[in-house]
Automatic annotation (TrEMBL):
Region ranges (Disordered): 361-384
Signal peptide: none
Mce/MlaD domain residues: 40-115
A GO cellular component entry from the record: extracellular region
UniProt name for this protein: Phospholipid/cholesterol/gamma-HCH transport system substrate-binding protein
Alphabetical list of NCBIfam families matching this protein: Mtu_fam_mce
Organism for this UniProt entry: Thermomonospora umbrina
InterPro entries on file: Mce, Mce/MlaD, MlaD_Phospholipid_Transporter
Length: 417
């Protein structure tokens, strides 16, 4: 007869066994669905083919296990698999791509859920993954058939010849191959030591290539224009040869011209400095003159036609009002008076400011850039060399004694020394 202690031990073992079997049944045998307990939600996946996927295969999300594959069934358009995803798994975006992949070399398939975007909506019970978002590996039979066809397509005689020639090529080359491997190893070590500069070079090269790609049309246009230039140079070869043949004679003629003009040309150029200083202070007026003169000439030439002068006149009296201040001392003379008149009033001028509303006229009111320095006898208007420095090359020291004394000498034409 069993003692009380033995009975208690048996009862404890029975309770532990029932609890263990219940846990295994609920956890691994999926018996909880028969009693209304499920720790997962179901997502349906549509596939064109099974791809070797089996029931109870692993379901991963970014490589982390989140459930198992449930029953699979055939449909008129392919295969439908049921994914049982754990309720305590991370939220999985509905915008995903399902990839049937191999976990090991023996072909253990599983399905990996890879998100293509962040944020919701998320997968829930009853969600479906469309066929277009599912990728399956090619059948192994196709790979084997392709390998068999490739092997059958290789001519055995030619392959034997290649193997024989390779044996002859590498026979006795062990030392050279060793040197090649050692050099490759040394190159790899140096590359590992300079990973950062190499990475920077690749990044900078990417910027350069992007710039080149952006300027592709400009580079193409440059190439086309260079081709046109080369073609034109080839076409004008005879002209270039003629130019080279006549250039010495032209240079000799120019040298003779300079020799004949010396020293008068240098004097003229020096005297033009005063003229340039004069125009420098009147650049605005000179520019206006050069603009208005062609317009006036064009207008005048268009007025004369067939011996007639055709033009229109618009009076602008008192628009604006004429200037009268400053002319009070001028005596009025009747136009019918033919006798001796009063002396010319040279002091008469408009004394109103140029900003007034009247028509201020006269050269005194014209814009000007200042008054140039007074010319001094015996000079060309240059500052005193003892107290000033000339700009640029003009301020360099004078030539040594015995150097060229005229323009012909400067040009090497054998002038007076």
């Amino acid at each position: 007869m069993l003692t009380v202690a033995t009975r208690l031990r048996v009862l404890v073992f029975l309770v532990i066994g029932v609890l263990a079997l219940s846990y295994v049944g609920l956890r691994y045998a999926d018996l909880g669905r028969y009693v209304g307990y499920k720790n997962y939600y179901v997502v349906k996946v549509e596939m064109t083919q099974g791809g070797g996927l089996l029931q109870y295969a692993d379901v991963t999300y970014n490589g982390v296990s989140v459930g198992r594959v449930g029953p699979m069934k055939l449909t008129p358009t392919g295969v439908e698999a049921e994914l049982r995803i754990k309720k305590n798994a991370p939220k999985i975006p509905a915008n995903i791509q399902a990839q049937v992949a191999n976990r090991s070399a023996v072909g253990e398939q599983y399905i990996d859920l890879r998100p293509t975007g962040a944020g919701g909506p998320y997968l829930a019970s009853g969600s479906r993954v469309a066929r277009a978002a599912v990728k399956t590996p090619p059948p192994v039979t196709d790979l084997l058939l392709a390998m068999n066809d490739f092997a059958a397509s290789v001519p055995l005689d030619d392959l034997r010849t290649v193997v024989d020639e390779a044996a002859l090529a590498f026979n006795g080359q062990s030392q050279n191959l060793q040197v090649l491997l050692d050099s490759g190893s040394a190159f790899t070590r140096e590359a590992n030591r300079h990973v950062k500069p190499t990475t920077e070079l690749i990044v900078d090269g990417e910027h350069v290539m992007r710039t080149q790609n952006q300027e592709a049309e400009a580079l193409k246009a440059f190439g086309r224009n260079a081709q046109l230039l080369a073609r034109q140079l080839r076409t004008s070869d005879a002209d270039f040869r003629r130019l080279i043949s006549v250039a010495p004679g032209a240079a000799e003629q120019f040298a003779g011209l300079v020799r004949d003009l010396d020293p008068d040309l240098s004097v003229v150029v020096a005297n033009l400095l005063t003229t340039s200083e004069l125009f420098r202070t009147r650049i605005a007026g000179t520019e206006e003159l050069l603009v208005k003169v062609p317009q006036a000439v064009a207008a005048g030439s268009s007025m004369i036609k067939n011996g007639r002068l055709n033009f229109g006149m618009v009076t602008t009296f008192f628009q604006p009002m004429p200037c009268t201040k400053g002319y009070e001392s001028t005596r009025y003379r009747n136009g019918l008076d033919t006798g001796a008149g009063p002396p010319l009033n040279t002091a008469a001028k408009c004394t109103m400011p140029a900003s007034s509303w009247t028509n201020v006229r006269g050269a005194a009111n014209a814009p000007k850039g200042g008054v140039p320095d007074d010319a001094r006898p015996g000079s060309v208007g240059l500052p005193d060399p003892a107290t000033s420095v000339l700009p640029g090359a003009l301020g360099l020291p004078a030539l040594p004694a015995g150097g060229p004394a005229d323009m012909g000498g400067l040009l090497g034409l054998g002038g007076v020394r």
